[in-house]
Amino acid sequence: MENKTIIEITNLSKEINGTKILKNINLNIISGKTYGIIGRNGSGKSMLFKAICGLINPSDGKVKVFDDIIKNGNFPKYTGVIIEHPGFLPQYSAFKNLKILASINNIVDDNAIKNIISLVGLDPNDTKSVKKFSLGMIQRLGIAQALMERPKLLILDEPMNGLDEEGVKLIRKILLKLKNESVTLLLASHNSIDIDELCDYVYKMENGALSELKI
């Protein structure tokens, strides 16, 4: 998959209630590289990620991921995602939540689930319900969910949200390791260190329009 285009976005636009949220976006994502997208809140970053994941239908243009056209809610294969705030069933533990999600594709076992929970700094044997988790613990669990099935493509919308300094360092270390393993990363972050340390290419989203920055 070296140097293969795995996301191809062509003339993508999204209009809601007469307002253009995404404006004629063209973007090719190459396998094994890390792409950073910066921009203010409300600039369109999350909406772009939702379009890539099939969570919204474009008003115009098309999105292809791993050669599949993404539309009508079909989620791209080989992909792990965090967009906005991770959502879990509050009455269940971290392990039970991930086990329920894992049962959809049924490609990871209990051991793998526990290992990924440990990797992000949580206790896989903790029976505490997720509703008692801090914001940072929820974020760690969201990252574990995104990583759980060993995706080839990882789409992360502000992955460091709510994390303390130790958590930020841990997640950054995990992402650097994935980058070295040629996982393709698409990352929106307000943190300039994340962008500087992780990204091969950086784009700016402004009022729904995307432009590449030179780094």
Report what the structure shows.
With 215 residues, this protein is α/β, with parallel strands linked by helices. The strands form 2 sheets. The chain has a 6-stranded mixed β-sheet, with helices on both faces. Strand 1 and strand 2 form a beta hairpin. The mean pLDDT is 93.
Give the SSE order as H and E letters: EEEHEEEHHHEHEHEE
Helix-residue proportion: 25-40%
> Largest beta sheet, briefly?
6 strands, mixed
What are the segments in which pLDDT stays under 50 over at least 5 consecutive residues? none
Features of the shown structure:
215 residues, alpha/beta, 6-stranded mixed sheet, 31% helix, globular
Give a brief rundown of this model.
Helices cover 31% and strands 29% of the residues. With 215 residues, the chain is of the alpha/beta class.
Question: Topology, pairings included?
Answer:
Elements: E1 5-16, E2 19-30, E3 34-38, H1 45-52, E4 60-65, E5 68-69, E6 79-82, H2 94-105, H3 110-119, H4 135-147, E7 153-157, H5 165-180, E8 184-188, H6 192-198, E9 201-206, E10 209-213
Parallel strand pairs: 3-8, 3-9, 6-7, 7-8
Antiparallel strand pairs: 1-2, 1-4, 4-5, 9-10
